[in-house]
Automatic annotation (TrEMBL):
SUPFAM superfamilies: P-loop containing nucleoside triphosphate hydrolases (SSF52540)
Transmembrane helix as UniProt keyword: no
Alphabetic keyword roster: ATP-binding, Helicase, Hydrolase, Nucleotide-binding
GO function term, MF aspect, one: helicase activity
Domain called Helicase ATP-binding: residue spans: 62-260
One Pfam short name: DEAD
Domain Helicase C-terminal: 314-489
Protein name: DEAD/DEAH box helicase
InterPro entries: DEAD/DEAH_box_helicase_dom (IPR011545), Helicase_ATP-bd (IPR014001), Helicase_C-like (IPR001650), Helicase_put_actinobac (IPR022307), HRQ1_WHD (IPR055227), MZB (IPR018973), P-loop_NTPase (IPR027417)
SMART domains in the cross-refs: DEXDc (SM00487), HELICc (SM00490)
KW Hydrolase (keyword) present: yes
Length: 816
């Protein structure tokens, strides 16, 4: 096999695609003795599987959990976090079966009913299935037949659920199953809950934003019910390396950070890992005629500017090169469609080189049958497959070892995800290489030109106190067990006012013994919310002539995507929407359409309250910028749509739409600056709207650098004169009811955020603004007006007010 690093050096250095190469040195591992309390048969099983001694961090975490302390182990990918969780948990089950602590061998039915049990929770069904397979291998190696394991989720048949309730010692599931099935039917699960010793929360860094808030409340409901049955379970959370892991675990279970033991020192061995930051090649036909890059017409570094290939095309070519070199590789992609496209393009590249190699590349994504996924994983492990193009389905813990390289098509969204994906290469102490290919997103461009940003860690952001998330969980909790005054602290309530509001709305009923769910209501309380963030019913897309259901679209996106007159594409067929009503979009097929459609929206932001504010002041000039964080109401409406002619997408017609307004109560951060200060900075009245708009777009694109969110989780608005502030104002708000913590994180790190935003715009090689700096794929105004140079001046003004930093490049010198 050719050295993947040398291959990348050779192909990337000659045309400027390889921007940065960082080598992380190998490190030796440090082991410890098996704990004296560990079950000897389990230890023997681990040894037969090749684990002669555990790593020191595994023992630290296992000891803490065995002692009954809530524990989080936050170490790197492939560091053996599963052993740290399962060793104390399975040892407790074995100890109960041996007759200790009133175990079942005492002959008592009551003792059998309270035998130790384990509940394992993962973000995905695939990970739970993978963990079950690993545990079955361990028990087989340990020659143990008395530990009963099973997975239980929404796909599990009723007969298997009955067996799990009656007999399983360890149930592997997910938070969704807890919310919709186990907790509402807890009386049928009381055997498991009475003996619950450990709750294992795997890959807990995946629970961020609104999903994190939901999962935190589900876990609190679980612990509350377990305590009502006399159990006192220990929570053991496993996470990728993240900032403040003890705080994350405490917020998940409603505890204080000092009650959590955090194990963060990774003592597992690691091979040399090479991180490569890569920008796509210039598009075919660039430079344009008359541009002499060597003479410096564009800028000092000739390969910086100009239109570039997509991250998808670049990743396909890199993947083909690595497969040709014999490297076993994963390519991570953001979407299911992207995984299929990259796999097919890679196969096409390889057919011209070696048709046999083309057959050793496949796609891997959600939507496949479980048997298909297991077969693909098995083929990759065995070497039959050399490469998979995959979504993040293979990011979260699924055991695929022995890989040589990873290619990431675009920034994965957070540093945690980036390191999880990069960690798939070179596992088990072997060398590996990970390549991050920049997409057109401004954050991607910033990251690959600022390598230092990827080597930090970030905190997991979520807010369980969000009343829009909390209220339905309180209803669900009240239906499971009446809510009482002591529950206020568990759910983070300062007082009973939210419960009283739910009582006024007829959802709860107050009795002397607490608050009860109003059983006269027609709905199940668990159906009041969806953990995965969906709030509106999906809209079905139906072919009018045949009645065939072509697909669905999220209800919140229907006005913008399947409004009357919209063009809808399905598997290469083109349709036009005739009508949208009653959660159904009726369409008719129309081939050879010469245009596509794009919706136009309008929005406004009303400030409801200010929670916090700070003023930055430039002493030499007296300019002031005020930052605020608080509650806002965002009103939006799809006002019309444009028809755009193919292939250039020029607007050939604009049409109005009569759609309802949507109101979102959420949280936002916003900054205001006087019109006079803007004028002094070189941004006059004519250019001010475009400068504010460009600054808003770029700051939304860069916020995921600081908060664990995606740009689609947040929105924004800019205006030259806001009716409430009376000044030029830029808002960035969370896209979820009640907020998700992202805007607040931006407010707390405003200086770092604005500096990164300005640097990203300045470093972009375009002349007037592009998708890599100030254009947005979600702009409701068609990315107009935008003033890149004005945005740089405004952001420089903000930085001067904060700390007297030097101004940005004059507009005439903005690199083109």
């Amino acid at each position: 096999m050719l050295d993947p690093v040398e291959l990348l050096r050779t192909t990337g250095a000659r045309d400027g695609r390889l921007l940065h190469l960082e080598v992380l040195p190998a490190r030796p591992g440090r082991t410890a003795e098996w704990p004296a309390w560990a079950d000897p048969d389990l230890v023997a099983g681990y040894r037969r599987l090749g684990v002669d001694q555990p790593w020191a961090h595994q023992v630290s975490a296992a000891d803490a959990a065995h002692a009954g302390r809530h524990t989080i182990i936050a170490t790197g990918t492939g560091s053996g976090k599963s052993l740290a969780a399962w060793l104390p948990a399975l040892s407790a089950v074995r100890a109960g079966r041996a007759g200790t602590a009133g175990g079942p061998s005492s002959g008592s039915i009551k003792a059998y009913d309270r035998r130790s049990s384990i509940l394992y929770l993962s973000p995905t069904k695939a990970l739970a299935a993978d963990q079950l397979a690993g545990l079955e291998r361990l028990l087989e190696a340990a020659e143990l037949r008395d530990v009963r394991l099973t997975t239980c989720d929404g796909d599990t048949p009723l007969t298997e659920r009955d067996w799990a309730r009656d007999h399983a010692d360890a149930v592997l599931s997910n938070p969704d199953f807890l919310h919709f099935s186990m907790l509402p039917g807890h009386r049928r699960w009381q055997r498991l809950l009475k003996g619950l010793r450990y709750v294992v929360v795997d890959e807990c860094h995946a629970y961020r934003g609104v999903l994190g808030a939901h999962v935190a409340l589900v876990l609190r409901r679980l612990l509350r019910l377990a305590r009502s049955y006399g159990a006192a379970p220990t929570v053991l959370a496993a996470s990728a390396t993240t900032a403040e892991p003890a705080l994350t675990a405490a917020r998940l279970i409603g505890a204080e950070p000092e009650e959590i033991t955090a194990v963060t020192a990774d003592m597992a061995p690691a091979g040399r890992r090479t991180i490569v930051l890569w920008q796509p090649a210039l598009s075919a036909g660039w430079p344009a005629e008359g541009v002499d890059l060597q003479a410096g017409d564009a800028q000092d570094e000739p390969f910086e500017s100009g239109p570039r290939r997509s991250a998808t095309a670049e990743t396909s070519e890199l993947l083909a090169d690595l497969v040709s070199a014999g490297a076993r590789t994963l390519a991570f992609v953001r979407s299911r469609y992207g995984a299929e496209v990259i796999a097919e393009q890679t196969r096409r590249h390889l057919r011209a080189v070696d048709p046999d190699l083309a057959g050793r590349v496949a796609a891997y994504r959600g939507g496949y049958l479980p048997e298909e996924r297991r077969d693909l994983e098995r083929s990759l492990r065995s070497g039959e497959l050399l490469a998979l193009a995959t979504t993040n389905a293979l990011e979260l813990g699924v055991d695929v070892a022995g890989l040589d390289a990873v290619v990431m098509a675009g920034w994965p969204g957070t540093r945690v995800s980036m390191w999880q994906q990069a960690g798939r290469a070179g596992r088990a102490g072997a060398d590996g290489v990970a390549v991050l290919v920049a997409s057109e997103d401004p954050l991607d461009g910033y990251v690959v030109h600022h390598p230092e940003t990827i080597f930090g860690v970030e905190a997991t952001t979520f807010d369980p106190a969000n009343p829009y998330v909390l209220a339905p969980h309180l209803c669900a909790a009240a239906s499971e067990l009446p809510l009482t005054e002591p529950d206020l602290t568990l759910f983070g309530l300062p007082d009973a006012s939210l419960l009283e509001e739910l009582e006024r709305r007829g959802l709860l009923r107050r009795r002397p013994t607490g608050w009860f769910w109003n059983i006269a209501r027609p709905e199940r309380p668990q159906n009041l919310t969806d953990l995965r963030g969906g709030g509106e019913s999906p809209v079905q897309i139906v072919e009018a002539e045949t009645g065939t259901v072509l697909g669905t679209v999220d209800g919140a996106r229907a006005d913008a995507t399947v409004h009357p007159g919209a063009v809808y594409i399905h598997q290469g067929r083109t349709f036009v929407v005739d009508a949208l009503e009653d959660d159904v979009a009726l369409v008719h097929e129309k081939s050879d359409l010469s245009y596509r459609t794009k919706a136009r929206s309008e929005s406004s932001v009303r400030i409801l309250s200010v929670r916090d504010e700070v003023t930055w002041q430039s002493r030499p000039h007296g300019d002031e910028v005020t930052w605020r964080f608080g509650d806002v109401e965002v009103t939006s409406r799809v006002a019309g749509y444009d028809r755009r002619r193919l292939p250039g997408m020029e607007i050939v017609g604009s049409y109005p739409l009569d759609t309802p307004e949507r109101v979102l109560a959420t949280t936002a951060t916003w900054w205001t600056v006087s019109e006079e200060a803007c004028a002094d900075a070189g941004v006059g009245k004519d250019s001010l709207p475009g400068a504010l708009h460009a600054a808003e777009h770029a700051s939304i694109g860069l916020l995921p650098l600081l908060a664990t969110c995606d740009r689609w989780d947040i929105g924004g608005l800019s205006t030259a004169v806001h009716p409430q502030t009376g000044q030029p104002t830029v808002f960035v708000h969370d896209g979820y009811p009640g907020g998700a913590g992202f805007a607040e994180r931006g407010y707390r790190a405003a200086l770092e955020w604005i500096r990164a935003t300005r640097d990203a715009i300045v470093s972009c090689g375009c002349a007037d603004g592009c998708p890599a700096c100030v254009q947005s794929p979600k702009c409701g105004n068609g990315n107009a007006p935008l003033d890149k140079a004005g945005a740089v001046r405004l952001l420089s003004l903000l930085l001067r007010c904060r700390g007297g930093e030097a101004a940005a490049e004059p507009v005439g010198e903005t690199r083109a």
